[in-house]
Write a structure and sequence with these properties.
With 337 residues, the protein is α/β, with parallel strands linked by helices. It is 38% helix and 15% strand. It has one domain: TIM Barrel (Alpha-Beta Barrel), CATH 3.20.20. Helix 2 crosses helix 3, helix 4 crosses helix 5 and helix 9 packs antiparallel against helix 12.
């Protein structure tokens, strides 16, 4: 069958999505970004991945978050992206903000992991080939490497920009002190860090507590939050048992043993508050992250268009009363993973 030509929704920028400035930069990102960690690899239906990407773009999401090892099947989420990009999105490249990263294990031997110049440069070239892109909008060091000199990792990021293979750079999950060094190093070389990526959700508030968010903001860098739904726990997904097609059932990064009765009772209490606000729990959890000062964008994962459609409504109700916040945070603080 001949594939129909994709034409993006004409009113995609009037769908309710807002665009936030990333730190002190010229870049505005959609409040929600689409994440490719799960559900876009070789084990996921290509047709569904295509539908999700099109739905996202048609409703104002411009920011797409990839990494070399996303799958499952390392590299296969980037391949999926590349396939769909080639068929649907080429005419829209300049409206898209695409990220990739390197930092975790990717290929065997001493050069397929961590933060060396050798690894970052090779991985970036592989990612460009898989995604069929000429450049990334932002390329991240995916994690702090305690063994490689920070100057080596950071200079590789600077050179990647100078070579035109990425427009901006970012760092993900770096400790506060190393981040401070990185911000200064990159700034001095006219490649200011555009984005800092880390986990932030109602259950995991480490970046608020350890000074990461403050440090990122003080350095004029944007903050982009991942796992805002705690991989699905902060949704209705596990309120009535563990669905066969859920992430927990895959027993990889979320395990069925984590879905205890106590956890479900607390999630259920949060779900009741969300209902009183006229939201689903997923929407309330996303609105809570979006309400944080200094958050540029929130990266959502999803395994269906319906989930994404649900999550995207979070942008409609970002205001909380002080009382709501107190109640929600008190319940969430009881949830231990
Ligand atoms: N820099 C890093 O180190 C790092 C680490 C982790 C993630 N990330 C990025 O952040 C992205 C998001 O992280 P995440 O995948 O953990 O995200 P998440 O948004 O916390 O969880 C996504 C999961 O929640 C469930 N879900 C989503 N929307 C739902 C809805 N409306 N109703 C019910 N269930 C819903 C789905 O679970 P089911 O699959 O069970 O349906 C989905 O797979 C990743 O894709 C990746 O791009 C970066």
């Amino acid at each position: 069958m001949i594939e129909e030509i994709y034409k993006a929704e004409a009113n995609r920028y009037e769908a309710g999505m807002e665009y936030r400035r990333s730190g002190r930069s010229g870049i505005l990102l959609s409040e929600l970004s689409l994440g490719f960690w799960h559900n876009f690899g070789e084990t996921s239906p290509l047709e569904r991945s295509k539908d999700i990407m099109r739905f996202a773009f048609d409703h104002g999401i411009t920011s797409f978050d990839l990494a070399n090892n996303y799958g499952p099947g390392y590299g296969t989420a980037e391949e999926t992206f590349g396939f769909v990009f080639d068929k649907s999105f080429r005419p829209y490249r300049d409206e898209m903000f695409v990220a990739s990263k390197a930092g975790y294990d990717m290929w065997p031997g001493p050069y397929g992991n961590w933060g060396s110049r050798k690894y970052l440069m090779a991985s970036l070239d592989q990612s460009l080939r898989r995604t069929k892109l000429d450049y990334f909008d932002v390329f991240y060091s995916h994690r702090y490497d305690p063994e490689t000199p920070l100057e080596e990792t950071l200079q590789a990021l600077v050179d990647i920009v100078r070579m035109g293979k990425a427009l901006y750079v970012g760092i993900s999950r770096w400790p506060v002190e190393a981040s401070r060094f990185a911000f200064e190093y990159l700034r001095q070389r006219d490649t200011p860090c555009l984005l800092f990526q880390d986990r932030l959700n109602l259950i995991d508030r480490r970046v608020e507590e350890d000074g990461t968010l403050d440090c990122v903001r003080e350095n004029g860098c944007g903050f982009i939050a991942f796992s805002p739904l705690a991989q699905g726990i902060l949704t209705g997904r596990y309120l009535h048992g563990i669905p066969a097609d859920s992430r927990a059932m895959q027993q990889r990064f979320l395990k069925t043993s984590q879905i205890s009765d106590e956890l479900v009772a607390n999630v259920s209490a949060l779900n009741d508050i969300a209902a009183q606000r006229g939201q689903t729990l997923a929407q309330m959890a996303l609105s809570w992250v979006l309400a944080h000062e200094g958050v540029t964008s929130v990266i959502v994962g999803c395994s269906s268009v319906a989930q994404l459609a649900d999550s995207m409504k979070a942008v409609e109700s970002k205001a909380f009363s002080a009382e709501e916040i107190m109640t929600i945070e008190a319940i969430a603080s009881k949830i231990k993973l």
